[in-house]
Amino acid sequence: MKTMKEKHPLAIRWFHWVNFPVLTIMTWSGLLIYWANSHYTITLFGHTFYLFFPQGFYKALHIPFRLAEGMAWHFMFMWGFSLNGLLYVLYTWVSGEWRHLLPKRNSFREAWLVVLHDFHIRKGLPPQDKYNAAQRIAYTSIIVMGFGSLVTGLAIYKPVQFYWLTWLCGGYHLARIFHFALTIGYVLFFLVHIVQVFLAGWNNFRSVISGFEVIESPNIKSLTIPSNDEQPAEEKP
Amino acid sequence: MNNLPKKNPKQPLTVEQQIKRRNFISFTAFAGLSVAAYGGWSWLKKSPKETPGITGKAQAPFRRALNQSELAFRNFFSRNHLVKTYPKSGAAKKVRENSHVGMKEKIDVSLWNLSVMKRSGQVLLIGLDDIKALPRTEIVFDFKCVEGWDQVQYWAGVKLIDFMDHYRLNDEAAMAYLGLETPDEKYYVGIDMDSALHPQTILAYEMNDMPLTDGHGAPLRLIIPVKYGIKNLKRIGTMTFSNERPRDYWAERGYDYYSGL
């Protein structure tokens, strides 16, 4: 017996899929800008382990000598990135979706169990509703990171007019480093996200396009399965 | 017997049908929007360059976005927002020289004059000693390049606002833009008057307590901390005023005209 269970409201699916290409463009145009003074390294005890980024990487992506173009794209799509992010936060707040998204008191302990489970060290997951504890933490962190990119971005873009933001970021240099590090963070998030989506399978992936999941409930003769069990106040798209 | 075709009152869709239906609608919409987004992106990517003029080399939609962003952020500009200053001990001893555009020809500094084109058409020729006689201002601040580097530097000269006051350039100060060009006219910038009259904008003739070197724009250069380095023109030859944007070297090459910080 199959039933449909509403999962992602339409608005959230929009925000998600608008953000994906916009953030990709922001990352790419950011790289065009970063190239012009490419100088961040990972250095420990005087030994440089990694230079962001190797020449081959830039060449492969046709990055060099495109600073003006990078700035033009970055300062166009910054509006879309910020607007989409702000609307998302506003929506989750007003609709009550934040209840599924914000970590709960026990989330940090539970997230650890989720990670152990994902690495096949522990059997069984802690009970979860729409998102498990690790997801709550990840999906809240990514919004905090997005907000961080907006703030550090403004601190770099107008360090004189928004001097207090630059000060808040620990100065111009730190603001730039945070802005860069956050982007590296998105790339890492993306990689884990893709692996997880792949492992979670089709039903899960479909739900971020169609909005619902199909629940197979074997051996139940009754047809009166409540479609939204355990989820009071769920918004339908 | 009226054998009307059986018009079933709409049967509720089975779960299977509902799934199919919603999948179809969602995935069609998703595919359609993806194609549209891709189309929009490739249109933007291949969009025509702006007509070369005061600004150039940028694609038209991007130039529009740069100009709109300028308008949005100009609302936050204030002459009371001061650039952070540092103690002199924090200033770089070896000051970075990033460009020599407009300074290829040798000039005789003793024969140099700053030409100020007044609104009336009158031209003021002002020598370096006259400028040095005006109140001296120092600034140690973090000079920022559009490329991403920055350096704490120590400059001294006269505030542009003091200079304009002294030469009674009041009519000119009421105009929208200041234009500066090198004597060979190979490098030139346009600056909105708000930024030009910012109290930390100076006509600099000294760096690290020494007269400007050739490489840093002797005998007189602009130091404008509310702008990226590209606007800090070296070796000023002429000063003009206008209500339209004056020509600008880097804006002609795809960069934002405003380039304000």
From TrEMBL, chain A:
It is found in: Cell membrane. Residues 8-209 form the Cytochrome b561 bacterial/Ni-hydrogenase domain. One of its GO terms (molecular function) is electron transfer activity. The keyword Transmembrane helix applies. GO terms for biological process: respiratory electron transport chain. The chain crosses the membrane at residues 12-36, 71-94, 137-157, 177-202. Keywords: Cell membrane, Membrane, Transmembrane, Transmembrane helix. Gene3D superfamilies: Transmembrane di-heme cytochromes, Chain C. Its main location: membrane. One of its GO terms (cellular component) is plasma membrane. It comes from the Bacteria. It is a multi-pass membrane protein. The keyword Repressor does not apply. It holds the Pfam family Ni_hydr_CYTB. This is Thiosulfate reductase.
Automatic annotation (TrEMBL), chain B:
It comes from the Bacteria. Pfam families: Oxidored_molyb. Residues 103-250 form the Oxidoreductase molybdopterin-binding domain. InterPro entries: OxRdtase_Mopterin-bd_dom, OxRdtase_Mopterin-bd_sf. Signal peptide: none annotated. Keywords: Membrane, Transmembrane, Transmembrane helix. SUPFAM superfamilies: Oxidoreductase molybdopterin-binding domain. The chain crosses the membrane at residues 24-44. This is Molybdopterin-dependent oxidoreductase.
